[in-house]
Model the fold of this input.
Amino acid sequence: MSEHHHAPNPPPDITALRLQMLAGGYFPVPVLRHDTAKASAGKRPTLMGWEKVCASADAAEIQRWTTDHQQRECTNTGVLCGEIVGLDLDVLDPDLAIQVQALADAMLPHTPLVRIGLAPKSLRAFRAELDFPHFRLSESLSIAPRRCPHAQ
Done:
């Protein structure tokens, strides 16, 4: 049997979530599910030319992702960067993470868009008006605003 026969059915609400994101001004990106044995599982899109496809995707395109056999394993959803900037707080030490999170809270506006993967690390998403570069404070403390160059 070929690999695509083993792909799970996408969650029934994944298309609705992606359409809701689009309606809210975000550009959803289909991302490879986390539990597949492929490189960067859970982290990367597999759609060819995804930067351009996702930046111009309409409802019909987004609905197609759920039924396209090459995209069926993409049951995670990312957000195309551009106006959206991610602030990674990649701090594993719990005490230091609390301090860094408090600093981010004091310096930045509130955002309900917070993702926690491997706690206490987190990612906060913001809308940005200006482009600014990625920066790293140290090897152990990475604060990385991200702006994807292909989303413009």
Observations:
- Residues 1-7, 142-152 have pLDDT under 50 and may be disordered.
- Residues 84-151 form one domain.
